[in-house]
Amino acid sequence: MSAARDSAAAQTFRALVESADRKFVRVRDAPLHGRLPYHYFHSVFKAYTRLWKFQQENRAKLVEAGMQRWEIGEIASRIGQLYYAQYARTSEARFLLEAYVFYEAILNRGYFQGSSKGLGKDLSLRYKELRFFARFLVVSLLLNRMEMVKVLVERFRTLVDDSKATFRETNFKEWKQVVQEILRFLKSDTTVVHTRPLRYCLKYDSHQASAPYVARFHAKRVLKLHDVVLTSYHRNEVRFTELTLDTFRMLQCLEWEPSGSFFQVHPIESSNNGVLHDQTEASGLIDINLAMDMTDPTLPPNPKKAILYRPNITQLISVLGTICEELPSDSIFLLYISAPGKVGRHCNSQLDISGVPRNSENVKVAHQNCHPFNESNKRDSSDGVEDYVCLGPRGGGGGLNNLYPSDLIPFTRRPLFLIMDSDNSHAFKAGITRCREGRESRSSSFSSETSIPAPMCC
């Protein structure tokens, strides 16, 4: 874009792009879990808001100087990425909606399609378009916009096939695999007949007015679900990118289903001279705060969710420790782990197809000394059950991939709701309970009034 450098507007545009990109990289590489200084996101959003408004106000000059349409798409895509990252950090639905608004505008206006001569065979531009489709698919899945998902899948598959034919010297095997992942994901998800939304819906679930009646079951205080950690590890598990089917369904269950009118985007907007422009035409006028009008103010905030894709044990414990330290006193955090255990033949014969004991009275769990640092509880018990779930390949790391009940004991000092989706979940529940009872019986410094509540397991 050499001609653009001759224009004052183009030079300002380039300076704004470079400044925004530097801030974008800093936020992109920041961890999604734990506290992050407020000025990080405030600074990068401010930079991209200024950049976006500048290209809107100076569109004619920039196009005349040589600015390409894909450059507008790149800015919009990065703004969408920022909003999605903020959603991943806060679980606020408005950020996810903002990402959807920008991604939908990119799709409708074909910013990455390369309408100019020669851009259709630009490999770097093609990669930008492929990554855009993958990101848009994730956002659409999380918003349960299945009609849009179907459109995106078909166009994504066509784009991958065209890429293989156009760029014969380039191997698109990984992108072909991504297409297979989303097709398998959708096929597996649709096998479950949804008679109601997975997300918590005021139309189907208990009304907010029932909260006082639920509160009486709490002896001293009502705990609010504040943080959630979702993770899974299975061989050949159904997933799309880093979103597995197990974590996706749990994520949906922990989101509020909007009860108001949603996605009613105004079809037209007014420009400065009073001329009406259709939102779908290539005007580049995307309302950066449009999603604020699409949110449902009647809903309470969603709990903050951390999705960990195949973490090692150290990473999982590190995230749990950060959450426990920052958890408010009136809050509870939920830990969901979907992973295989190692169930011996004696115990395995007493499980039905769902992994639930047929006769819980006949299922024995060896009583062991479950001190958090006692290795004896990690060995095979006499009934053939090993008290762990495996978050990694079998036999890899000499047991370093195994998560034991004692690993979670330190986190039960804070209110914890534990869901073990495993064929060895019953052993996990028994192990944590025994460890808690053993620790409390040895401690004389806590009275019955100040003892810490045991975690809820299922």
TrEMBL record:
> Can you supply a Gene Ontology BP term from the record?
DNA-templated transcription
Q: What is this protein called?
A: Protein SCAI
The record's region (Disordered) falls at: 439-458
Any one GO MF term held by the record is: transcription corepressor activity
Q: Which Pfam families match?
A: SCAI
PANTHER family documented for this protein: PROTEIN SCAI
Q: Which organism is it from?
A: Stephania cephalantha
Output the InterPro entries linked to this UniProt entry: SCAI (IPR022709)
